[in-house]
Amino acid sequence: MAKYTDSAKELLEYVGGSDNISVVTHCATRMRFVLNDSNKADLDKVEEMDLVKGTFTNAGQFQVIIGNEVSTFYNEFTKIAGVGDTSKEDAKVAAKQNMNFLQRMISHLAEIFTPLIPALVVGGLILGFRNVIGAIPEFGPNGNQTLIELSQFWAGTHAFLWLIGEAIFHFLPVGIVWAITRKMGTTQILGIVLGITLVSPQLLNAYAVPGAEAIPFWDFGFATVEMIGYQAQVIPAILAGFVLAYLEIGLRKVIPNVISMIFVPFFALIPAVLIAHVVLGPIGWEIGSWISNIVYSGLTSAFGWLFAAAFGFAYAPLVITGLHHMTNAIDLQLMSEFGGTNLWPMIALSNIAQGSAVVAMIIINRHDEKEKQVSVPSAISCYLGVTEPAMFGINLKYGFPFLAAMIGSMTAAVISVGSGVMANSIGVGGIPGFLSIQADDWAMFFVAMAVAIVVPIILTMIFSKMKMGQNAFERLGKK
């Protein structure tokens, strides 16, 4: 008998049997189930299993925290359950059957931006480093020079790194349109080409449009079209990408296969480029400016502290619903309009606050070895920007740590916004996030970060003494 045979049989029974499993896969520590009927799963019995360290449901998937041995357990489970292996993409597709319309829309948005996040994080770190060596006059004999003024090496490094920064942010529309064609299953190279037409050097750079004396145009005799680029613009790229994808999908349905290789790309790409520059580009620009102006004005107004408090308090619940993915587009639009974002620092602080609440639970449950197997890795990953294990595995399980983290996040967000902290871009959403903060704002961000660490720890311990999590502790004691 294999090591996990009995546990696998138990879990199979508690999730409703093989017939109730649509798809099952796993990640680094969790089993991910898409169940045909979630009501058939006995959550209490699943959580009472010795092997199981917690459960939660997210994005239409029932997730069971197993730990580092999950891959071995998964192999044993699939043999006993008779459920075939599948990919994470298949699981995502199947999970959408358990989502409502809003959840599906948010899932689509997440699938667009998730492949871009590694590049955006790198870009944020690069911009932050360029700020340190090029914008802080704290060096030299008199302490009033920047590093690039003192050293040719740093001056050359500063100029060289912009090559990467420009590629990531100015040419962002290329990545967005590519991500859409990838998600929609259409021809990705056409998406890349369409994206390039939005940022071509032939066009007037988006950053030069506000101060331009005259805007060049294409003259078709009966009409003219302005030659405006959409560098760093998010919404025009999203609209253009979906038009291209749906044009290609529609054309493939009506054009015979024998000639589709020639005519589908031709009749999809040319109209998409024309529509992008004539209609969608200008409309998307206006929508993006409208959204970014509202957010920026709200955060910098006399009532900015109130907006910050609401966002800081509510961001973690947004993660539960998946609505937090919308902030990626807003952050990128703010960067395009204002050269930075005052929204992202609050996101990093919220992540830190959730991790700090877990640290408090580690101290409270320091004699519970099973709990530490979940809480210690969760706290570490949370401080590095991945919050789901901490939130679903610990904080939501007890309730009061989640509330303590929300209050800590709210307090830190008010400090961040009140002191005008700006980030160069999206970055690592945890303690290393300071590297993406504009160098002049580091001091106040560190103050806000300290608050996001200390307040949740103190409040979690106070709440535990007040027996706010009594029912959860009683259930844990029965295990």
UniProtKB/TrEMBL annotation:
<feature type="transmembrane region" description="Helical">
    <location>
        <begin position="228"/>
        <end position="247"/>
    </location>
</feature>
<keyword id="KW-1133">Transmembrane helix</keyword>
<feature type="transmembrane region" description="Helical">
    <location>
        <begin position="402"/>
        <end position="422"/>
    </location>
</feature>
<dbReference type="GO" id="GO:0008982">
    <property type="term" value="F:protein-N(PI)-phosphohistidine-sugar phosphotransferase activity"/>
</dbReference>
<keyword id="KW-0418">Kinase</keyword>
<keyword id="KW-1003">Cell membrane</keyword>
<dbReference type="Pfam" id="PF02378">
    <property type="entry name" value="PTS_EIIC"/>
</dbReference>
<dbReference type="InterPro" id="IPR018113">
    <property type="entry name" value="PTrfase_EIIB_Cys"/>
</dbReference>
<keyword id="KW-0472">Membrane</keyword>
<dbReference type="InterPro" id="IPR011296">
    <property type="entry name" value="PTS_IIBC_treh"/>
</dbReference>
<protein>
    <submittedName>
        <fullName>PTS maltose transporter subunit IIBC</fullName>
    </submittedName>
</protein>
<feature type="transmembrane region" description="Helical">
    <location>
        <begin position="259"/>
        <end position="283"/>
    </location>
</feature>
<dbReference type="InterPro" id="IPR003352">
    <property type="entry name" value="PTS_EIIC"/>
</dbReference>
<feature type="domain" description="PTS EIIB type-1">
    <location>
        <begin position="5"/>
        <end position="87"/>
    </location>
</feature>
<dbReference type="InterPro" id="IPR036878">
    <property type="entry name" value="Glu_permease_IIB"/>
</dbReference>
<feature type="active site" description="Phosphocysteine intermediate; for EIIB activity">
    <location>
        <position position="27"/>
    </location>
</feature>
<feature type="transmembrane region" description="Helical">
    <location>
        <begin position="442"/>
        <end position="463"/>
    </location>
</feature>
<dbReference type="Pfam" id="PF00367">
    <property type="entry name" value="PTS_EIIB"/>
</dbReference>
<dbReference type="GO" id="GO:0016301">
    <property type="term" value="F:kinase activity"/>
</dbReference>
<dbReference type="InterPro" id="IPR001996">
    <property type="entry name" value="PTS_IIB_1"/>
</dbReference>
<dbReference type="InterPro" id="IPR013013">
    <property type="entry name" value="PTS_EIIC_1"/>
</dbReference>
<keyword id="KW-0598">Phosphotransferase system</keyword>
<feature type="transmembrane region" description="Helical">
    <location>
        <begin position="109"/>
        <end position="129"/>
    </location>
</feature>
<feature type="transmembrane region" description="Helical">
    <location>
        <begin position="303"/>
        <end position="323"/>
    </location>
</feature>
<keyword id="KW-0762">Sugar transport</keyword>
<keyword id="KW-0813">Transport</keyword>
<feature type="domain" description="PTS EIIC type-1">
    <location>
        <begin position="107"/>
        <end position="479"/>
    </location>
</feature>
<keyword id="KW-0812">Transmembrane</keyword>
<dbReference type="GO" id="GO:0015574">
    <property type="term" value="F:trehalose transmembrane transporter activity"/>
</dbReference>
<dbReference type="GO" id="GO:0090589">
    <property type="term" value="F:protein-phosphocysteine-trehalose phosphotransferase system transporter activity"/>
</dbReference>
<feature type="transmembrane region" description="Helical">
    <location>
        <begin position="189"/>
        <end position="208"/>
    </location>
</feature>
<feature type="transmembrane region" description="Helical">
    <location>
        <begin position="159"/>
        <end position="180"/>
    </location>
</feature>
<dbReference type="InterPro" id="IPR050558">
    <property type="entry name" value="PTS_Sugar-Specific_Components"/>
</dbReference>
<dbReference type="GO" id="GO:0005886">
    <property type="term" value="C:plasma membrane"/>
</dbReference>
<dbReference type="GO" id="GO:0009401">
    <property type="term" value="P:phosphoenolpyruvate-dependent sugar phosphotransferase system"/>
</dbReference>
<keyword id="KW-0808">Transferase</keyword>
